[in-house]
């Protein structure tokens, strides 16, 4: 299984599990827990969440799902920008750890840029890191100018990742942000890699997937995972979809398929404002 390293020495598979909109009554709670547990059994270590997701209910469900197997999970959570003061980060992290029933996070992210000075937020991340409450820290939804500001801060070069919206229908980061991240050797986490399922309703896209002998979800994921230094975190509501996603790791796309996808969803030819959901 292809792996990637975020800051620390621990390598993780390039496919993880997203949890946006779980524990909100859209799916059976038992199914959502079963998905996370099966994902861990199949080696998908990264579980991504945030204090925003379900107002903490996502973190609570994950805490229940990983009970007894914390060592198998690479936990990522995010702090609200309005909680990003020094004291606010520390308090938010404490609440997150309590909900997840763990003593540490593998990765803690600033959810999106806000009004609190970045240096203050980074200082809080460093404080947590030095005391073992988090292993690494990063950001989310940061465009090229935002990333330059991060790296200019004291300790900013320790930023371990930028989690962004990236998929076939959202290729804007390819023009400037992804090359910048590669230049600075900073991995990227891609959220909503199949556009929250909307990509799967495109008839032309489905035709390409069928011709290539894979499901539409696998095609979307494989396309994202074709890039080095990138991890994808799709959400799966049912075990069967989790297994479908996991199988995408064993697929390689040929040049003919890539050419068809480029024709359907052209790469950007100019800067595009970073999109977010």
Features:
eight-stranded parallel sheet; 10 strands; alpha/beta; globular; 277 residues; 38% helix; two-stranded antiparallel sheet
Describe the fold and architecture.
The chain has 277 residues and is α/β, with parallel strands linked by helices. Helix content is 38%, strand content 15%. The protein contains 10 helices and 10 strands. The chain has helices spanning 29-41, 57-65, 86-100, 118-130, 144-152, 177-183, 203-212, 216-225, 239-247, 255-264; strands at residues 3-5, 11-13, 17-18, 46-48, 74-79, 105-110, 134-140, 162-165, 188-191, 230-233. Strands 3-4-5-6-7-8-9-10 form an 8-stranded parallel beta sheet. Strand 6 (105-110), helix 4 and strand 7 form a beta-alpha-beta unit. The longest helix is centred in the middle third of the chain and has 15 residues, at 86-100. The radius of gyration is 18 Å and the shape is globular. It starts with a strand and ends in a 13-residue tail after the last helix.
């Amino acid at each position: 299984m292809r792996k990637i390293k975020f800051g620390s020495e621990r390598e993780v598979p390039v496919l993880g599990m997203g949890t946006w909109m779980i524990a909100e009554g859209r799916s059976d709670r038992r199914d959502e827990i079963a998905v996370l547990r099966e994902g861990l059994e199949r080696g998908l270590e990264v579980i991504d969440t945030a204090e925003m997701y379900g107002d903490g209910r996502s973190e609570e469900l994950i805490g229940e799902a990983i009970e007894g197997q914390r060592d198998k999970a690479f936990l990522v959570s995010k702090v609200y920008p309005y909680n990003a003061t020094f004291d606010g980060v520390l308090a938010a992290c404490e609440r997150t750890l309590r909900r997840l029933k763990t003593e540490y996070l593998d990765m803690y992210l600033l959810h999106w840029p806000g009004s609190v000075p970045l240096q203050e937020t980074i200082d809080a991340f460093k404080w947590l890191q030095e005391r073992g409450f988090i292993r690494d820290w990063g950001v989310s939804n940061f465009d090229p100018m935002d990333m330059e500001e991060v790296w200019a801060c004291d300790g900013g070069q320790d930023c371990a990742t930028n989690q962004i919206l990236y998929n076939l229908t959202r290729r804007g980061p390819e023009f400037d942000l992804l090359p910048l991240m590669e230049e600075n050797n900073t991995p990227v986490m891609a959220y909503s890699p199949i556009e929250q399922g909307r990509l799967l309703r495109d008839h032309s896209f489905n035709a390409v997937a069928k011709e290539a002998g894979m499901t539409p979800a696998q095609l979307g994921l494989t396309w994202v995972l074709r890039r080095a230094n990138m991890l994808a975190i799709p959400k799966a509501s049912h075990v069967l979809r989790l297994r479908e996603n996991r199988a995408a790791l064993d697929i390689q796309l040929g040049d003919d398929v890539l050419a068809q996808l480029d024709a359907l969803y052209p790469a950007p030819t100019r800067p595009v404002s970073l999109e977010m959901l």
